[in-house]
């Protein structure tokens, strides 16, 4: 299909959309499984959407989650489009493709619509049922397969690929919202200077993780839904490293805490992720050319 095997599993690399659709379509034909796209969607985690999924998962409401998906779908794949249509009682989530001529297009559409359904169930509740689903192609399987999968009536050869649901669902509040992760994801996707946005995103997560001693490459990469090696490569392109960002975050946080005489040196060490105060002393000598107490005196004197 023209897909480089080295790209498979690399979260920071795109594969040609036509290659993806051809692969899915040929699997359906060769295995004689016409609903291959839906079966594959049922096995995929909606978090494959990366930063788009982070923003959607941590939005305060279902409506805000869907708006983030619609606005930033191109970050996941430049070949797809997502549009929300608001009616008096219903809202329609429309999936489309920028490319008009795509081999085996119905199969990749069903894959996308299946992942969409999984996302709705993840955020709207396992009992979520759309009002109606429409597909712009003829049925490739028994219509009962589609009805069982989506849990509602499915119309074929329609004008658009839609998941239609009650408007009230847009106001449903989502559980376990992480506002920091939400802001980080949106800034990452919306930043005009992508390098700066990545620096800020990683630093924000490091600062939050320092007091718990969890500012590790693997854990931060997992929050960004990136492979650790991919994150290191992206940071290298920005002219920095994960280790440098951790050191910078520790230095800035230590300086802020040392300026407050009410914070003990042992507390400063703990807050920046050190288990021993002696490590703080060595770092302060490297950062500021003096031990922590001397740096505190400088900061307090400067504040006066």
Key features?
single chain, 304 residues, Arc Repressor Mutant, subunit A, 2 domains, 5 strands, 54% helix, 9% strand
Write the layout of secondary structure elements.
Layout: H1 17-30, H2 36-43, H3 51-57, H4 62-76, E1 80-86, E2 90-97, H5 105-124, E3 132-134, H6 143-150, E4 154-155, E5 161-166, H7 179-190, H8 194-209, H9 217-223, H10 228-237, H11 242-258, H12 265-271, H13 277-288, H14 292-303
Detailed description of the structure:
- With 304 residues, the protein is an alpha+beta fold.
- The chain has 2 domains: 5-171, no CATH class; 191-303, Arc Repressor Mutant, subunit A (Orthogonal Bundle), CATH 1.10.10.60.
- It is built from 14 helices and 5 strands.
- It has a 5-stranded mixed sheet.
- Strand 1 and strand 2 form a beta hairpin.
- The N and C termini lie far apart (68 Å).
- The mean pLDDT is 87.
What amount of the residues lies in strands? 5-15%
Mean pLDDT: 87
Low-confidence stretches: none
Radius of gyration: 24 Å
> SS-based structural class?
alpha+beta
Domains counted in the coordinates: how many? Answer: 2
> In which order are the strands of the major sheet placed?
1-2-5-3-4
Q: How large is the count of helical segments?
A: 14
The helix/strand series, from N terminus to C terminus, equals HHHHEEHEHEEHHHHHHHH
Largest beta-sheet details = 5 strands, mixed
Q: Can you count the beta strands?
A: 5
Shape: elongated
Percent range of helical residues: 40-55%
End-to-end distance: 68 Å
């Amino acid at each position: 299909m023209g897909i480089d095997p080295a790209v498979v599993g690399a979260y920071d690399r795109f594969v040609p959309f036509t290659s993806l659709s051809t692969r899915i379509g040929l699997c359906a034909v060769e295995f004689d499984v016409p609903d291959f796209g839906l079966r594959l969607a049922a096995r995929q985690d909606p978090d494959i959407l990366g930063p788009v999924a982070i923003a959607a998962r941590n939005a305060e409401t279902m409506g805000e989650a869907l708006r983030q998906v619609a606005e930033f779908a191109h970050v996941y794949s430049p070949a797809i489009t997502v549009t929300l249509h608001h009616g008096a009682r219903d809202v329609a989530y429309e999936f489309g493709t920028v490319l008009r001529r795509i081999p085996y297009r119905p199969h990749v559409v069903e894959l996308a619509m299946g992942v969409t359904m999984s996302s709705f169930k993840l955020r709207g509740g396992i009992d979520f049922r759309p009002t109606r689903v429409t597909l712009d192609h003829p049925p490739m399987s028994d219509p009962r397969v589609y009805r069982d999968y989506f849990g509602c009536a499915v119309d074929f050869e329609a004008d658009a690929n839609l998941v239609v649901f009650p408007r009230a669902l847009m106001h449903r509040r989502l559980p376990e919202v992480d506002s920091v992760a939400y802001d980080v994801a949106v800034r990452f996707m919306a930043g005009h200077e992508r390098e700066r946005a990545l620096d800020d995103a990683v630093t924000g997560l490091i600062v939050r993780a320092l007091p718990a001693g969890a500012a590790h490459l693997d854990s931060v990469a997992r929050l960004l839904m990136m492979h650790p090696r991919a994150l290191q490569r992206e940071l290298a392109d920005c002219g920095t490293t994960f280790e440098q960002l951790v050191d910078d975050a520790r230095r800035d946080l230590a300086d802020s805490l040392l300026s407050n005489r009410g914070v003990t040196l042992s507390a400063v060490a703990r807050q920046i992720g050190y288990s021993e105060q002696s490590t703080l002393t060595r770092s302060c000598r490297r950062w500021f050319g003096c031990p922590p107490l001397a740096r505190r005196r400088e900061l307090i004197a400067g504040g006066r």
